[in-house]
Amino acid sequence: MKTKEVKVESTTVKNQLIPKVLIGKNGTRHEITKVLFCAHSTDNEFEGLRYAVSFSGAETYLYLIDSRWYVQVV
Question: Which domain holds residue 22?
Fold first, then answer.
């Protein structure tokens, strides 16, 4: 699995961090239209939290590891 570090604007709702906007390397902003789920790995498949999100008509995974955000690269 390949990932790329990105900037994410987020908000906190009921003590849960919710990603709202993904900001690309060139400053392009992509509004996250839906957070499908958020989970910890039960089998050490990944570190931190994994969010399944929808933006710009696509679905992908965002990872939050040690206060840094990463997006899955396909």
Answer: 2-73
